[in-house]
Amino acid sequence: AECSTGSMAKSGKRKMAHAAVPMWLRLAIGAVVLLALVSVAVVALLREPDEPQQPHVFTYEVQASYRHDSEAFTQGLFWDGDHLMESVGMYGHSDIREVELDSGSVLRQQGLQQREFAEGIVKYRNRYYMLLWKVGDGIVFDEKFNRVGSFDTGLKDGWGLTTDGSSMIITDSGSKLFFFDLPPDSDEGGKWTLQRTVQVHDDGTPVEMLNELEVVSGEVWANIFGLDCIARISLRSGRVTGWIPFDGLRERAMKEAVGRPKNRMDVFNGIAVKGHQIHVTGKYWPRLFEVSIAAAPSGAGFSLDAVRERCLPKRNIFR
User: Fold this and answer.
1) How far apart are CA 130 and CA 136, in angstroms?
2) Which ranges in the chain belong to alpha helices (H)?
3) What value does the mean pLDDT take over residues 170-182?
4) What pLDDT shows up at residue 87?
5) Which uninterrupted H or E stretch holds 74?
6) Closest listed residue to residue 285, CA positions, set 317, 252, 311
7) Pick from 284, 261, 250: which is nearest to 89 by CA?
8) Residue 277 pLDDT more than 50?
9) pTM of the predicted model as reported, rounded to 2 decimal places
């Protein structure tokens, strides 16, 4: 009888406590909980089925080293079939060029106007598209490097440019990827149409100053301005799926320089992929490297926290 009476008393107290909570507060708490569950569900839906919960860490190995024009302020780099294409920046020195890999020699080039500062470049069908710095405009070239038109992205800046075959993908110095409709055949320019914008992040932290871009096996790889790192990014969710720190590559480029370069080496920038060949370089770098990528070994220096410390910008110096 004592147990029964005690249980009834406790039950009554719980009912009284529950009744004491105002209805509006219970509804508010329920709404917060529901919102949290929805947010978790949205994040899960945005993540690709094979995306890792946390970014993988990779390392690199140099397979070959080539001469690179140390006076080239590299902005964009990509393979057009068997032709290595590069866009070079700086006012008064900007151009589009084709480079011979083995010698580093410039095979052909077309300069820009004094007021134009070249940025990222890509080819779609039979046209080359080049962004310009600090404006939303770009230049259209034909395959002979004749200037045939211009385009307008509507953005305030242009940095990296690539394509996944269904969209033109642009960065603007920030932490977002901008997806635009593909231009029409034999395009001579015009206003580009924005499809969508994707926030790039590492476990919720925005990755600022996304620079040169390259689509690789369904991901976009991005240089991070001022850091010797490449981020591997999901095209759908913007989630960083992997980090590739290139520790020591800058020092190797300086060591292997032929003669005394005129300019001091600038930031790591430039990714070109052809099949299984991956080539990287930087602005004013005297060397261009073919590298292979593999999962990093466990241990000091390759923990995710250590790599994030090296590869995630602390702030955006352009904003």
Assistant:
1) 11
2) 2-20, 23-46, 249-255, 304-311
3) 98
4) 98
5) strand 74-80
6) 252
7) 284
8) yes
9) 0.84
Residue 46, both tokens: 């945005």
84-121 in b/e form (b: 16+ CB < 10 A) is bbbbbbbeeebbbbbbebeebeeeeebebeeebbbbbb
Burial of 307 (0-12, 13-18, 19+ CB in 10 A): buried
Contact criterion met (CB below 8 Å) for 85 and 79: yes
| CB-based contacts of 263, cutoff 8 Å, min separation 6 | 70, 71, 284
Task: Calculate the alpha carbon distances from 203 to 37, 54, 108, 308 in Å.
Answer: 17, 7, 43, 11
Helix (H, G, I), strand (E, B) or coil at 297: coil
Tell me: pLDDT of 48 over 60.
Answer: no
In the structure encoding, which two tokens stand for residue 241, read together? 């799926």
In DSSP notation, 175-211 reads: SEEEEEPPPPTT--EEEPPEEEEEE-EETTEE---EE
Tokens for 45, please give them. Answer: 């839906």
Nearest residue to 104 via CA among 276, 286, 319, 267: 286
Burial per residue of 220-248, b for 16 or more beta-carbon CB atoms within 10 angstroms, e otherwise: bbbbbbebbbbbbbbbebbbbbbbbbbee
pLDDT in tens, 100-159: 999 999 999 999 999 999 999 999 999 999 999 999 999 999 999 999 999 999 999 999
Residue with tokens 């310009």: 132
Q: What is the number of alpha carbons within 13 Å of residue 171 lying toward its C-beta?
A: 31
Amino acid in position 187: D
- The confidence band for 262, taking pLDDT boundaries of 50, 70 and 90, is confident
